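Cross-posted from the bioinformatics board.
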Amino acid sequence: MSFTKVKGTYDVLPAESPKWQALENYIRNLYGLYQYKEIRTPMMEYSQVIHRESEDSDMVTKETYNFKDKSDRDLTLRPEGTAGVIRSYVENKIYATSNLSKFYYIGPNFRYERPQKGRFRQFMQFGIEALGSTDASVDAEVITLAYETISKLGLKNAVVKINSLGDQASKSNYREALKAYLAPLKHKLSPDSQLRLEKNPLRILDSKDPVDQELLLNAPMPLEHLTEESMKHYQMLVELLSSLHIPYELDKKLVRGLDYYSHTVFEIHATIDGFGAQNALGGGGRYHELVKEMGGPEIPGIGFAFGMERLLNALEAEGITLSQEQRLDAYLINFGNETKKEAFKSLYELRNSCIHAEMDFSNKNFKTQLKDAIKLNAKYVIIFGDDELKLGQVTVKNTETQEQSTIAIKELVAYMKGFLS
Ligand code: HAM
């Protein structure tokens, strides 16, 4: 029997975790600046929160992890963040206390997909949801924040693609137009698209099948079927984005992989060599039915999510480093019993004064401890030698300049603080 990680998952080892922490800190700061507040919802939900009648996407129907708990309840591991946030928004009646609620979240999600580069079965997303307004300025803020997320990181080869599906009337106008156009071509469509033609024709626009793609070349597009009001909303959005010089491209075929969207949809793509087909770093859009579906009032929302693994891949591909090495100010070298006891006490006192310190716990010889200290990038080594200890002293040595001095143990914390301030 071998013990391995579950297929499609990965470990973040200590050498890698600083860049995750740096990305998370960056998100918290940036989203805080835009007045989004963090919400943390459970990783598992009752299945009906995820498996809603209106949601027929592959992600929900084919890719979720579903199981029963010991009391025979149907539970699902969340495949995305939005549904749980809306469930919590309704359950906690947050709408009653605020007319525009702005949330951000960071956490793991689960999809039973075929693993490949940038595609996992457990993956991390961060995202936002803004609930309570249909105004195009909220769409503009959300897309601006998605754009800022990548541009402030320094990613150059990323682009925002937008489209509008319009309101329910626009969507059903379009559905009919697309069906009418594709009906005579049905026999040429891929088997998947043939199935979708009746039930969910919009999803055909997403098909990767080259024959489907070709058949779609002259197909009607959602933007051409917007009601007057939906068109106005879209035009206001692009006007606002242009006023901030946010670069975007209209992608007339963009429909996204979930069924809850209406009006604005958007994606952030990275054109990065060797990145494979999974090049959407993030995506989102408006949803106007979700709050009601989960038992709340009629409240609209808009949001997005980014995949953190893909974003970190993209940063690496563009040579952008986020992380700082974890800092180590001092490494305490000791030689066994008495010196170890003294070093152990000093270690505690140094740490209490916010000095990042470590010591040797395993009685290695001097040379090896010195090597360890260098490997850990310690700025100073503090040597607790037997002879010095008798005089109540230690030697402090700068690992870079090699300068060293002997000081009284009781002065050590103040002395180190002086160095490091
Ligand atoms: P999504 O497009 O399904 O949207 O996922 C958003 C991002 O999560 C993707 O662009 C991708 O970077 C990442 N992602 C998705 N699946 C995987 C996977 N298997 N492995 C690694 N990364 C993955 C949503 O999830 C919506 N909830 C976004 C949203 C928020 N719409 C409105 N509000």
